[in-house]
């Protein structure tokens, strides 16, 4: 056929991307006197600028799943996915104004240190263990389990379409990633991310520009998408069972991603590494622009995919075996006359992988050193700890490559396990919210809340894996093969390729399956968070939470918010004044802030108002 395969130039471009990443690692291993302390290694010495940190946050958020998966998602379900732009805005606002001030003024390396400061060391252990074994939150973030799939899935998709060597790619990305994480620490991770965001945008742009040229203008792409029903932005159906509607994306999505941005180690670790709190906040807001740009690129790619393949869908016509292979298929289809450009696209997909994996490795190393090693062996010197951090990076890098090998054998099973473990983000977010927003939450309440949130999340999660929701809940849009000139036998199989391991005949679906288990996947986190917060509040009040005195520096205070407006003070980390605090200032602000729950509004008497936040 006319479909190209990979040429020498494509491999050259790909190799260059890996090489530059490795060189950055070597540079930061020796620049500025190297990594003297574990803080230098894990936190970049807390001297980073806002701009590289912002791009780095964007990069690790954007795995290859975004490069390959989001365009296919828009091709299949329409552009309603773009409503996530609103979600990202809300999430960044919450992270910058609620979680960041508290974490930054405490100056912690591991977010779970906070749990010990605020509650007790058992909760810190719970948080750490949950993080290392499963996933810190929605599986876009770090976990040894997830990282295996992050490396393996794009390699497989690209291999099946382009014939790009599968294990060569997996091992190369794994090794390079481990190499620069181990040598350069957080600084190398951040600066390679900056380079990789550039590559990603370049890869996306090349596809978009070429598609616009092929289709003869952007107008035609938009027109095709409109008549194909792909521009379905506004769907205000309040039904929580439907997969993507305006409400599930804005409400559910905000909780899901807040678990990722606000309290997830790999993200928090980076913005705490900024040199001042002002830089940390600005980095989050710049990163928001990056997220929007990448969402726009992915959306345009998805619409271009539809416009080009509207009469002959390669997935139904059995040209590709899974939806995430559509993008590589398109690239080879329209860019095969340009040597090196398909390689650029593959490099951009792998940049996504590299940036996600490197932040995972660094975050896992930080959590292990700070939460497990430092408390146990108090006598270790800083120099030794920095060597141990390097050792941990090397170790987790090896684990990730091993996990990729495991993913190749147990793909579907692992995917199912992940979507279940991805629900852990909700309860953890609830736990941090309790600590930061409720003065009276105590250790017992927090623990019981975490447990109940966890149990409910797991219940819904496992249920939804066993009984996947019906197509009328997910609403896939129509795909046509009318214009195909390939003689393949039957076009009957249009079922979802992501069917999981546990396939049960549709006859025996219990009543729970169609209401409770069909909950939109975005609401799983929301459910976990709300259950954790509500149970935590009730139990804390019952076990005398009002009597305890929590130090105000562990909570969000009015000063944290007001200091946004005084530039002079914001450059120096201000000390919290405990003396002149008037506990009964019932100020008006904060009450109508969407980030705080209105559930307790009527109950809260004057004495439960701390700084005007109804708690």
Automatic annotation (TrEMBL):
The keyword Transmembrane helix is annotated on this UniProt entry: yes
Membrane spanning stretches: 12-30, 50-68, 80-104, 166-190, 197-218, 244-263, 284-309, 349-373, 394-414, 420-440, 447-467, 521-546
GO CC terms: apical plasma membrane; extracellular exosome
UniProt-recorded Gene Ontology molecular function terms: organic acid:sodium symporter activity
Catalytic activity entry: iodide(out) = iodide(in); (S)-lactate(out) + 2 Na(+)(out) = (S)-lactate(in) + 2 Na(+)(in); propanoate(out) + 2 Na(+)(out) = propanoate(in) + 2 Na(+)(in); (R)-3-hydroxybutanoate(out) + 2 Na(+)(out) = (R)-3-hydroxybutanoate(in) + 2 Na(+)(in)
Xref: InterPro entries: Na/Glc_symporter_sf, Na/solute_symporter, SLC5sbd_SMCT1, Sodium:Solute_Symporter_SSF
Cellular compartment(s): Apical cell membrane
CDD domains: SLC5sbd_SMCT1 (cd11519)
Topological relation to the membrane, as annotated: Multi-pass membrane protein
Superkingdom in the source lineage: Eukaryota
One BP term from GO: propanoate transmembrane transport
Keywords carried by this UniProt record: Cell membrane, Glycoprotein, Ion transport, Membrane, Sodium, Sodium transport, Symport, Transmembrane, Transmembrane helix, Transport
Family the entry assigns: Belongs to the sodium:solute symporter (SSF) (TC 2.A.21) family.
UniProt xrefs under NCBIfam families: sss
Name of protein: Sodium-coupled monocarboxylate transporter 1
Organism the protein comes from: Chlamydotis macqueenii (Macqueen's bustard)
